[in-house]
Structure formats: C-alpha cells, structure tokens
Write a structure and sequence with these properties.
Elements lengths: L8 E7 L7 H11 L4 E7 L5 H10 L4 E4 L13 E2 L1 H6 L4 E5 L2 E5 L2 H9 L9 E5 L3 H12 L4 E6 L2 H14 L3 E6 L12 E4 L24 E4 L8 H8 L3 E3 L1 H17 L6 H12 L2
Helix pairs in contact: 1-9, 4-5, 4-8, 5-6, 8-9
The protein binds NADPH dihydro-nicotinamide-adenine-dinucleotide phosphate.
Protein name: Shikimate dehydrogenase (NADP(+))
Catalytic activity: shikimate + NADP(+) = 3-dehydroshikimate + NADPH + H(+)
Enzyme class: oxidoreductase
C-alpha cells in the first residue's frame, strides 16, 4: 500500500487590514501549478494579537509567513534571528521557521534587485531614489549592499531622506546623499537608474511624480515600485523617451519567489505568479 500523507505545508501572511492583499492568490497559484502540497493563509492579525499569531505559527509548525502593515517592525521582538539587510533596514516582511527558530528577512529590496538584475547590475551604478518611506529604505540598503556607487535620496521631507542616506553610508560601501524634493526634479545626466519609491501612481494611472520629463534620456533605467496599475505614467513617459523601464509588478512577484525559496527551499518560475497578479489587477 502506498504511503499517503494528509499533512500540508503551511505558510501565510499576517497583516491588518488584509482583505485587499493579493499575495495569497499569487502564492497559491504557484503551489497549485507546481503540485506542491502547501497552503498560504491570508490572516487578519490585529496589532495586539501579533505575539499570539507568531506563537501559533511556530506551534503549528508553519514553515514561514509574510508580515505586512502594521507588523513589519513590531514582529522583530518575536524573532530569534535577523538576516543582514533586515537588521539594517529595521523591518521584516518575511519570516522563516526552521527547527522552531524564527528568522526574519526583508524581501522588499531583494524583490526589487531581482527585477533590476534582469536589465542591469547595480554594482558601480549611480542611483536617484524618489521617496523615503519603507520601500525606499529597503531598496536603498539592498542597492548599497549590492555595491551601487552612489545613491541620492530625494524626498519632500529631507529629514526622512537623511535617515536612509546615513543608513546606507554606515552599513554599505555606497556613497549616499540627500536632496529636498521641491518642485519638479531633474534627473542629472550621470544618473544610471531612477527609481520611483513613492506612493504616487498607486491606483491612479495618470499620477506622475513631479519630474522634468525632458531629463528622462535614452539609456536611463527607470523603475517604479507601484504594482497596480503596473504601467504607471512615469513608465509610459520614460518608455516614450527610450528609457529601459521596470514595473512594480516584477518587484512584487520576485518577493513571492524569494519567500517560497526561504520557506520551501525551491526556486519557482515567476511566470505563473506574474500572470495571476496581472489578471487580478486588470480586473480592478
Ligand atoms: P510610505 O508611506 O512609507 O512612504 C511613501 C513615500 O512616498 C514617502 O517618501 C512620501 O514622501 C512619498 N510621497 C507620497 N506622496 C507624495 C507626493 N505627492 N509627492 C512626493 N512624495 C510623495 O510607503 P512605502 O514606502 O511603504 O510604499 C511606497 C509605495 O511602494 C506604495 O505605493 C506601495 O504600494 C509600494 N510598494 C511596492 C512593493 C512592490 O513589491 N512592488 C513593495 C512595497 C511597497 P514624504 O515622506 O514627504 O511624505
């Protein structure tokens, strides 16, 4: 008689609100596509219940989970270990559970780098990073760890930009400085990569970061973190001027690939996850 196994591998996400988080659809589609007997459970976990949720995941021998807002910083005190970039960034969005030990990583910047690597190596590059929130912080640290030469962080509130620039300077080999974002920004000619890491464009295909579009030149790489809609106005303008463009969908999908690799030790092809998200976003 064949040996049957009725126990599935468990993974999931803790956030609140969680109703509009499409990660579950993306990861479950990949599990089904590869006939992996695993589930991803999208859990609404209020701040006061995070400790119990983490203990529950450990007790039920989940192999890992994502953490989204508002838990990315609060989860750290419940973990046993942090990956290097998560420690520098000070935020965790992906936890692996191995032999009962909880290891926190931050995949925001890693997902971005995986997407970027398809068109360019970050090493030695000069970057202009728009925004200074959580996404910008993760991207800046990973670019620094990947040996970018120089990162300028541009934000309306320059104090927030300076926090990121000093993190990069203190923890990586990259040089970093700050520019206050006041009026329309110009992209200097020696910049190799422009990244929109603001929330401008989320849910609004016509929103455009205040930029002098004539400074988007051929050869420049222009990346946007906005996953929905993926073809933001910035990317459309950049493409029209001969730039190489990268959308935020790639960053999100690669975070799924990295999470599954952490939890299951398997590198899945991103295609099925990408198609699932595209279908969901086009139905919005
Ligand atoms: P935060 O709220 O932490 O930061 C938002 C940033 O956007 C701030 O720097 C803010 O500037 C800036 N900003 C917002 N509106 C404007 C404006 N009108 N003009 C100039 N700057 C503006 O958000 P996150 O960093 O967490 O997320 C940013 C975006 O990244 C979100 O849209 C999110 O969906 C996306 N994201 C995508 C991921 C992916 O995998 N594709 C992963 C994570 C995030 P200020 O400080 O001056 O207010």
């Amino acid at each position: 008689m064949s040996q049957q196994n009725f126990r599935s591998i468990l993974t999931g996400s803790f956030s609140t609100p969680c109703d509009d988080n499409p990660t579950v659809a993306m990861i479950e589609a990949a599990y089904r596509h590869y006939s992996i007997d695993a589930h991803y459970i999208n859990c609404d976990v209020k701040a006061e219940n995070l400790k119990d949720a983490v203990a529950g995941a450990r007790a039920m021998e989940w192999v890992g989970f994502n953490c989204s807002l508002p838990h990315k910083v609060a989860v750290i005190e419940h973990l046993d270990e942090l990956a290097e970039s998560a420690r520098i960034i000070g935020a965790v969005n992906c936890v692996s559970i191995r032999d009962g030990r909880l290891i926190g990583d931050n995949t925001d910047g890693k997902g971005f780098l995986a997407s970027l690597n398809k068109v360019a190596e970050p090493s030695g590059k000069k970057v202009l990073l728009l925004g200074a929130g959580g996404a910008a912080r993760a991207i800046a640290v990973e670019l620094g760890l990947a040996s970018a030469a120089h990162i300028t962080v541009m934000n309306r509130d320059p104090k927030k930009a300076e926090t990121i620039a000093s993190l990069v300077r203190d923890n990586t080999s990259a040089r970093a400085d700050v520019q206050a974002w006041d009026g329309e920004a110009s992209v200097p000619e020696d910049v190799d990569i422009l990244i929109n890491a603001t929330s401008i464009g989320l849910g609004d295909a016509d929103a455009m970061p205040p930029l002098k579009v004539e400074t988007l030149r051929k050869g420049l790489i222009v990346a946007d973190v906005i996953p929905n809609p993926p073809r933001t106005r910035l990317l459309r303008e950049a493409e029209g001027r001969g730039c190489t463009v990268l959308d935020g969908l790639g960053m999100l999908v690669n975070q799924g690939v990295i999470g599954v690799k952490h939890w299951l030790g398997r590198t899945l092809d991103a295609g099925v996850m990408e198609r699932t998200l595209k279908d969901i976003f086009s139905a919005d």
